Amino acid sequence: MFHLHFGFDAQAVAQVGELVGTLRSVGKPLVYTVHDLRNPHHEVRRDHDAQLDVLVPAADVLVTLTGGAAREVESRWGRWPVVLPHPHVVPLDRMAPRQRAARGFVVGVHAKSVRPSMDPVPVIRALAEVVPGLPGGRLRVDIHRDVFECGGLRHDRAIAGYLRKAGGKGDIDLRVHDCFSDAELWAYLESLDVSVLPYRFGTHSGWLEACHDLGTTVVAPSCGYFAEQRPCLRYAHDESGLDARSLQEAVLEAYWRRPCWQAGARERRRERAAIAAAHRRLYEVLLCRR
């Protein structure tokens, strides 16, 4: 049994074809979980589409995370995947009921290393127009050193310049650092009331799942199928651009409503068991066919 999730981003299409051919030659079933229908690390979609054109028709079983993604797979390749949710990301023993702060309202945008799917500056500009003016409102922006610092491998002068200026004016609470450890990431997400995903394309999000584990409200873009994964607020953002007003309205809704969508550890444990059982059934059927 060969179950593929990720890890083929940098492989040539011919290499993906060789993998499929090798599996067939030894009679080994291929299961492919379609996490990404638009690769967040590729500026253009051509290469990933070509890889999918090999993998999706060849897989013995397809799995994906949302009904929307399944419908897209069916429309593009005529195959319907098994739909199984993403399991918890935060360890079960780290999850606890969210304690809401009596005061303050922290909105976070984490630009990370600004992978191609992200367009953080227009998102931050739109938020900076409304969040600081809310009673207790604070806009926290995090970015990795490799983008912000001049010697960084992915240094972006325009992004760094804007963030430095916005931070100096007090429009944003700017934090520059290397990648968080897991423990630092959980603490960071818990410090936020809202996490805004600054994506212009993509499909699904493990970040969103971690927020759901910890009770941090997510404002997700309209691209992809993020909003189908877990309860969240939405704004209009895709490769055609950002609707700043829809983003501002979503954050204002979060401010006034203070929704709390959080998974419990018991719920997530049951879900994980069900996901594992579903995978076992898939594997058993494929092995019996073999």
Helix segment tally? 11
So what's the CATH class of the largest domain? Alpha Beta
Radius of gyration, in angstroms, nearest whole number = 20 Å
Identify the quaternary structure here: single chain
CATH topology of the largest domain: Rossmann fold
Strand numbers in spatial order across the main sheet? 7-6-5-8-9-10
- End-to-end distance, in Å? 10 Å
Q: Under the CATH scheme, which architecture of the largest domain would be assigned?
A: 3-Layer(aba) Sandwich
Structural class: alpha/beta
**Net shape:** globular
- Helix amount, in percent? 40-55%
Uncertain segments are none
CATH superfamily of the largest domain: Glycogen Phosphorylase B
Number of domains: 2
Q: Tell me about the biggest sheet?
A: 6 strands, parallel
**Into which percentage range does the β-strand content fall?**
15-25%
Number of strands: 12
* Mean of all residue-level pLDDT scores: 96
Can you offer a commentary on this structure?
This protein has two domains: 2-88 and 269-289, no CATH class; 92-257, Rossmann fold (3-Layer(aba) Sandwich), CATH 3.40.50. Helix content is 43%, strand content 17%. The protein is built from eleven helices and twelve strands. It has helices at residues 13-25, 46-58, 67-77, 120-128, 145-148, 157-169, 182-191, 206-214, 226-229, 244-257, 265-289; strands at 2-4, 30-34, 61-64, 82-83, 105-110, 137-144, 173-177, 194-196, 217-221, 233-235, 237-238, 241-242. The strands form three sheets. It has a six-stranded parallel beta sheet, with helices on both faces. Strands 1-2-3-4 form a four-stranded parallel beta sheet. The chain has a two-stranded antiparallel ribbon with strand order 11-12.
